[in-house]
Amino acid sequence: MRQLKVIRSLVIDSLDTITKGSKKYHLWMGFLTLVMLIGMYCYSIQLDEGLSVTGMTDRVSWGLYISNFTFLVGVAAAAVMLVMPTYVLKDIDFKQAVLIGEGLAVAALIMCLAFVVADMGGPSVLWHMIPGIGVFNFPNSMLTWDVIVLNGYLFINISIPFYILYRHYQNKEAKKNIYVPGAVLSVFWAVGIHLVTAFLYQGLQARPFWNNALLGPRFLASAFAAGPALIILVLAIIRSFTAFKIPDKTIGKIAMIVTVAAQINLIMLVSELFKEFYAPTHHSESAYYLFFGLHGKNALLPWIWTAIPLNVLATVMLTFGKLRKNPRILYFCCFILFVAIWIEKGFGLIVPGFIPGPYGKIAEYLPTGIEVGVTLGIWALGAFVFTILAKTAIGIELGELRFKLKKMES
Amino acid sequence: MSESKKWFSLDLDLNKKSESSGTCGCGNTQESCGSSHKQEELSAEEFYEAAINASIGDERKKDGFEQVFDVQMDRRDAFKKLTASLLIGAGAVSSCTSVVQGADSKEKAQIDWEEQFKGNYKLMTDDEKKQTVDRLMRSYELRTGKNINMSSKNAEEDVLFGYAFNISKCQGYMNCVTACVEENNQDRKSQMQYIRIHEMKDGKGFNFNEADDNYYHEVPAEGHFYMGTQCFHCDNPPCVDVCPVQATWKEEDGLVVIDYDWCVGCRYCMAACPYDGRRFNWSKPEVPENEINKNQHYLGNRIRKKGVMEKCTFCVQRSRKGKNPACVEACPTGARIFGNLLDPDSTIRWVLENKKVFRLKEDLGTEPKFWYFMD
Questions:
Q1: Does the beta-carbon distance from B279 to A134 stay under 8 Å?
Q2: Do A359 and B276 touch (CB under 8 A)?
Q3: Touching check for B81 and chain A: CB below 8 Å?
Q4: Domain locations in chain B?
Q5: Nearest chain A alpha carbon to B69
Q6: What gap in Å lies between CA B262 and CA B279, rounded to an integer?
Q7: Structurally, what CATH architecture does the domain formed by A2-409 represent?
Q8: Is residue B36's pLDDT more than 50?
Q9: What does the pLDDT look like over A115-134, one tens digit per residue?
């Protein structure tokens, strides 16, 4: 009974915090709501007319939605880079950042699921995928593996922070023997979600651009660069807008993670480019299309040639400790690295997989306004969810939100 | 895997008997193949069916959502009870809201409801298949006042369909494409076509990169030859494995089919197909009423809906009646040959035994049942 009371009070208190804030906060939330509404309107058009309102065709059958999905799985997986040192290696430094990281993972996963649903031709029959009442093609289809790992990861990343915050809310210490096993599990799980998502593409013999043993490891490396880079940016914002204390040491350590992951990512990129261009085969055509264009079709060139220099520049700058320790340069590097990997792991990965087609047909893909609208709406949804989670978590961690028995009695 | 091949190979006569006795070409164990209704021995599924028959008896005749929920529910009684209560509530809502409507619209709503919550066609019994086909025919009648004839005919025993394409004969007339579109009720608005005819340059070999599959000029164009592609009905189809809901599968007679009502539209199969064999309904398919082919099959040319996959089925509505697919019948040059690979006297077997045949992208291990040859 007491537990229920506490939860009720927690919900009421958190509703109270998330609806109150500075003018800037209200403007931010209002802006996100507006973008979400526009996204929903675009999605309603898509529901009504079908996916023909997107730029996708029979030739390029996955586009912006699946690209963002792939990228965001990486962001979600990156929360582990904070969980591991905090809970497993007992590095206290990260403890505050980890709640933010896990909140980010939850928001990223919600966006992932939203992108997958937005990409479906028949969202009304999605129950066909629910094990038990539908038919779940497990273990044959990698998509079913992905459904399992993503939802499992979502559950873990909701339950661990919830437990910790719930204890802190009642002025109690969170019990280590309860949440540490969960945290250890999530470390393995995070690697799992990204590897499984890579296998989704890697396992297709029809698409040589994806059918490549490096895809999985490269997914991990780029995720562990882009995810923590986003966390650094978010922490920087939180630091300047709230009283939440995040020591420089914490950000310095996350920056170290970003640097190492970005370096490994770059090595893998070089290895991939070497394989595709030193002895080009028929299977290198997608890479040729991506980097140089094929037969005058070169829609992706501006994107990839933005991404590669940004990626290299950020990695090189981060490598020098002096530059990395300057917050402004660090934030700049994190931002350009995030953008570069979003391009590279997003449509830089998905779209060339379909070009040229199975019989060499080169049909280009360009997202439509509606597609962009839905995508922005889902990103706004993610930011909205994260803001709510972070605001509640920070409120509890700062001691502003506490369970008061008296309040319940009155 | 090689022992269980059902397509033609040189020593076919030696092992034909064992092939037709119930192994399945998919190479999986019988339980996971799931297409074993016609077999003599009790497979795991049939045993399961029999067990249900024995335990439920008269209540066996399920349809609509009951069938869906009962399929795998027996093991999870608790969950079943939970959903049952939910369904009663939902059913009450659906019936009470339609009291004021006319009998026709009530029936329509009833059909829509049952169709929305029916199970996967692949897992249906013959009775259930018939029921859904009847519902679909009745629904069409209620909507348009016209009758269609929809079949749920299963694969026949000792039949495995195969296809051969004579590159020397094809002149690129595309009669096959037109016939296919008309036969299979494909969307006219997006000009969906299952068949692609690639116009290739003489002296360049099979160079698909330089081929044109979208030409509008007089054929045969000088200095060119023609080659058609469509779904190859692979014996080891990658599209089937990747489907998260088993909405696509290989039938006993080798046809790779789709349950349009079960497909969720994720398009993973499209990414997995190395042969560009699959098409997606990006918007609601449009076929003028007077052009609709009313001889339909559930797995074949019935009218599709928005947001689902479709593909060539070797005209299942025709081939299972012993007729040639529309493309074969329409071809003016005789470049297309279709038949039963298990019948030693069939033309297709003659081609495979006497011509130097090859298949596309054989290195991918998909084992297409579609061969090319030249005179």
A1: no
A2: yes
A3: no
A4: 2-118, 158-375
A5: A133
A6: 16
A7: Up-down Bundle (1.20)
A8: no
A9: 999 999 999 999 999 888 88
- Residue B340 or A182, more confident: B340
The Cα–Cα gap between A343 and A71 comes to 9
B215 — contact with chain A (CB < 8 Å)? no
Measured between beta carbons, which residues in chain A are less than 8 angstroms from residue B258? none
Q: Are B336 and B191 in contact (CB under 8 A)?
A: no
Backbone angles phi, psi at B18, to 5 degrees: -65, -30
Q: What share of chain A is helix, strand, coil (3-state, %, to 5)?
A: 75, 0, 25
Q: What is the DSSP string of B242-254?
A: H-TT--EEE-TTS
Residue-wise pLDDT for B160-190, tens only, equals 999 999 999 999 999 999 999 999 999 999 9
Nearest CA distance, A153 vs chain B (angstrom)? 19
| % of chain A at pLDDT higher than 70 | 97
Interface of A with B in 89-118 (CB under 8 A): 116
Residues B317-328 have a mean pLDDT of 95
Testing the interface with A: which of B246, B312, B360, B367 to mutate, by most A Cβ within 10 A? B246
The tens digit of pLDDT for each residue in A224-259 reads 999 999 999 999 999 888 888 888 888 888 899 899
Residue B11 clears pLDDT 70, i.e. is over it:
no
Tokens found for residue A134: 């539908």
Residue of A314, A155, A153, A168 lying closest to A232 (CA atoms): A314
Domain B158-375 listed as CATH 3.30.460.10: no
Q: Using an 8 Å CB-CB cutoff, list chain B residues near A51.
A: 265, 280, 282-283, 307
pLDDT at B259 over 50: yes
Chain B interface includes A271 (CB < 8 A): no
A319: tokens are: 């490598």
Res. B10: pLDDT tops 50: no
Is the pLDDT at B252 greater than 50? The verdict is yes
Tell me what the mean pLDDT of segment B15-31 comes to.
Answer: 41
Average pLDDT over residues A345-366: 92
Q: Return d(Cα A232, Cα A234) in angstroms, integer.
A: 5
| Cβ contact, residue pair B266, A204, below 8 Å | no
Say yes or no to pLDDT of A139 above 70. yes
Considering only the beta carbons, identify the residue of B271, B276, B278 that sits closest to A204. Answer: B271
What pTM was estimated for this model as a whole? Answer: 0.85
Residues of A in contact with B68 (CB under 8 A): 133-134
Hey, is the C-beta of A148 within 8 angstroms of any chain B C-beta?
no
CA angle A183, A188, A191 (to 5 degrees): 125
Give the C-alpha distances (Å, rounded to integers) separating B8 from B25, B36, B112, B235, B353: 12, 21, 43, 11, 9
pLDDT at A183 over 60: yes
A128·B242 Cβ contact <8 A: no
What residues in B contact A140, CB-CB < 8 Å? 241-242
Q: What backbone phi and psi angles, to 5 degrees, belong to B196?
A: -120, 130
Is-contact B199 B224, C-beta < 8 A? yes
Question: Is A138's pLDDT higher than 70?
Answer: yes
Whether B271 and A359 lie within 8 Å, measured CB to CB: no
Closest partner CB to B244 (pick from A137, A203, A204): A137
Pairing of the two strands B370-373 and B161-166: parallel
Q: How far is A57 from chain B (nearest CA, A)?
A: 8
- Nearest 5°: phi and psi at A94? -85, -10
Order the strands of the B370-373 sheet from edge to edge: B336-340, B161-166, B370-373
Measured distance CA(B321)–CA(B262) in Å, rounded: 25
Instruction: State the Cα–Cα distance between residues B173 and B177, nearest whole angstrom.
Output: 9
Contact B264 A126 (CB under 8 A): yes
Q: What is the pLDDT, as a whole number, of residue B81? A: 56
Those of residues 289-308 in B touching chain A at CB distance below 8 A are 305-308
